[in-house]
Amino acid sequence: MQFIPKTIPEMQPEIISVKESPPELVTFDVGGMKCAGCAKAVERQLMQYSGVISACVNLAVEVATVECEPGTVDAEALAKKLTDNGFPSQSRSGENQWEAEATTIERRRQEIRQQIKQLTIALILIILSGLGHVLGTKAPILSNIWFHWGLATLALLLPGRPIIVDGCRSLWRNAPNMNTLVALGAVTAYTASNAALLFPRMGWECFFDEPVMLLGFILLGKTLEQQARRRAASALQALIALQPAKARLVDFKLSSLDLRSQELPLNSTSEVYDPQYIEIPADRVRVGEWLQVLPGEKIPVDGEICEGKTTIDESMLTGESMPVLKQPGDTVAAGTINKSGAVVMRATRTGKETTVAQMVALVQAAQTRKAPIQNLADTVAGYFVYGVMGISVLTFLFWYFAGTHIWPSVLLGHGAMDMGHGAMNMGNELPIIHYQSPLLLSLKLAIAVLVIACPCALGLATPTAILVGSGIGAERGLLIRGGDVLERVHQLDTVVFDKTGTLTTGNLTLTDYLPIFQNSEWDLNSDINVGNRQDACSTIDGVSGNSQDACSTIDGVSGNSQDACSTIDSKLLQIAAAVERGACHPIAAAILLEAQQQGLPLLAAEDFCTEPGFGVSALVEGRRVFAGNAEWMKQQGVAVATELSGSLQGKTAVYVASGGVLLGVIGLKDTLRPDAKAAVERLRGMGLRVMMLTGDTASAAAVTAQQLDLTAADVLAEVRPEGKARAIAALQAQGCKVAVVGDGINDAPALAQADVGIGLHCGTDVAVETAQIVLMRNALMDVVESIELGRATFNKIRQNLFWAFGYNTLGIPVAAGILLPATGILLSPAAAGAFMAFSSVSVVTNSLLLRRGFRA
């Protein structure tokens, strides 16, 4: 089949306005949030502050990210405002990241320990209350009404006190939360039981066991939820723990460095005993300093090996379990583990610039960015508690004034799901009680409505799934920047790959030299010590169509066909290498490497100028030389013969010209990545259309496309960097949801234009910064895995939101007594509290199940 790749027509350059300074981002650790209502209240308070553009609060990790106008927001003042309003906060700006995270982790551990203590007390009270009902007259003390009054009182004063206090404060601040609902339910039940106890003539029954069981179930659910959330965040905490605390600084001026030197003897100082090294905090290391790393130690900062040889475990950064050999000249990343040999390294990136620090920042940012699907839940959460309180009041009014009169049978007995243990009277026994009071039945139903509603499930649905998904990605070297990216990943239908350096290795090799040198001012008679090459002559034969004429022309120059070919070939390579020295591109690297391997000295060159997508020019020995593609030559007024282009079919051609005359052409060829074909096939199997986008020639693109079984319609060739963004925009205009995979500066516009940009970490910094998904490993199969992870995580978000909305939609009417007239089913306040407590646990647990599909 003949490939005719599409080309993007040239367009006039657009006028781009100068952008204003980017917004400033400030991050806070926020405590005191109990449910989605609290998170929404924090967002409202942040948005009220002058200079704040937007605010995003994550309930699962208790972090707030504020986008504000540069220089307009005082982070400490904003943190104090939140603290004064009941949400203890601390700004992360200017702090050591490791210390700040360690403080946060320790605070959460203390909270969990405190919750466990409260839960233990609550469980003891529940056991004592239950024994009273089970043993009955066999244990008069345990069944005494005053004993149960004491249990209820202790439940409110000890484990329930923080809940009641926080609920009341939140209500006072006009920001009611889950604790407000629980506090209202428990205190109302306790008050009604006290009224029945003190005024027995009213004929009410006591249900002191309800607040005891209600608070116990709530505390059990909160403790399990906290443990699950801590487990969900374990991957990020492990990533943060990678950052070493110490570094061993050595003197680079020493002529001999003892790599076997390890620990100092006791009672000695490094300065006196061994001047070769001194330990300093890792965050104090400066770029350019030399560090010694012993076997078993972590690499303290990003750097380059200077002395020694070792293997490095990079599994936490890349997910690759096999150690990687490192020797002088190789780069190493902070947090990776030195496995075998002692080495000396030079620091190249420190502090927040290291790879692991950037990974932590990306994961933390991902965990604070919401998916658009969460917007509905956030809107509901903002008014949820008010709505539940209103429904509770309506429930009470309906049953007291109408329901008990319409269905008087509801006053005659317990419902099937009434988990109350019966009422308590002034005697020593706890008899089975039948409802006789419309007021008390209405009150119980109103309390059940209060405590069954769960704003937590709404608030945790999205962040816990993102927390687990981003953690799995971090463990595997897949960095997804946020919930909004996950939603776009789920919508993808097209994946566009850059060719050079992405689908191919990017390690170009020279295959052809075609020197022309006709009518050129360059001196071809210079003596250059080069090897003997015959392929230049044979290739020229193919271009000129006359072997004898071609060789005779060259013979006339040097007097010897073979030597002349070798000399001219090397002269062409020498000129091209001098020009390409000013470029940072795989083509330039290949030409310079070939010149180095042939031992050719570089010619003097200056005044380099690069035209992205076309080529590079420079002054070489006083002459302006251009090296680039055929279009670049055309713009410089240099004619390129059609036969010349045809002889390099399927290869990348670099034309070299000076003074309007073509000096020659160099052919290069790239090879596919080993996993490129498998990755393309997997993506197709997922229902995605796979395309290739390249600035290379149509013939070179066609060769790669054939190897990948891509059709001509799926190949866009000869596209300049700015044209790549237009090509992606054209696909989007057709209704496609596009992901772009790239690694170079030329890919940055397309990555930014795409619905999802996927950048290889081995590529340029600008590509990594532009991409929404960063792949730490140099593997295309990670593109497949990142999309699969994104889809699975988004599905968990949808499941969680469905459960959260479904639970509240069904649970509140049942608690309000909708099933009571027909079936006799009645939820007691304790049973409603149990359902509420475990609803949020189920959401977090469902998020944790995401790991089952991504086991190593």
List the SSEs and their pairings.
Blueprint: E1 6-7, E2 24-30, H1 36-47, E3 52-58, E4 63-68, H2 75-84, E5 89-91, H3 97-135, H4 140-143, H5 145-157, H6 161-172, H7 178-198, H8 209-232, H9 234-241, E6 246-250, H10 270-273, E7 277-281, E8 290-293, E9 302-307, E10 310-313, H11 315-318, E11 324-326, E12 331-332, E13 337-338, E14 343-349, H12 355-368, H13 374-406, H14 438-452, H15 455-475, E15 478-480, H16 483-491, E16 494-498, H17 499-503, E17 509-515, H18 535-544, H19 547-558, H20 561-580, H21 586-597, E18 605-611, E19 615-620, E20 623-628, H22 630-635, H23 642-646, E21 652-658, E22 661-669, H24 676-685, E23 689-693, H25 698-707, E24 715-717, H26 721-733, E25 738-742, H27 748-753, E26 756-760, H28 765-770, E27 773-775, H29 781-815, H30 820-823, H31 829-848
Parallel strand pairs: 1-24, 16-23, 16-25, 23-24, 25-26, 26-27
Antiparallel strand pairs: 2-4, 2-5, 3-4, 6-7, 6-8, 8-14, 9-12, 9-14, 10-11, 10-13, 15-27, 17-22, 18-19, 19-20, 20-21, 21-22
Helix pairs in contact: 1-13, 3-5, 3-8, 5-7, 5-8, 6-7, 7-8, 7-14, 8-31, 9-15, 12-15, 13-14, 13-15, 14-29, 14-31, 15-29, 15-31, 16-29, 18-19, 19-20, 20-21, 24-29, 29-31
Explain what you see.
By secondary structure, this protein is of the alpha+beta class. Helix content is 49%, strand content 16%. The protein has 31 helices and 27 strands. The strands form five sheets. An eight-stranded mixed sheet has the order 1-24-23-16-25-26-27-15, sandwiched between helices. Strands 7-6-8-14-9-12 form a six-stranded antiparallel sheet, with no helix packed on it. A six-stranded antiparallel sheet has the order 17-22-21-20-19-18. It starts with 5 loop residues before the first strand and ends in an 8-residue tail after the last helix.
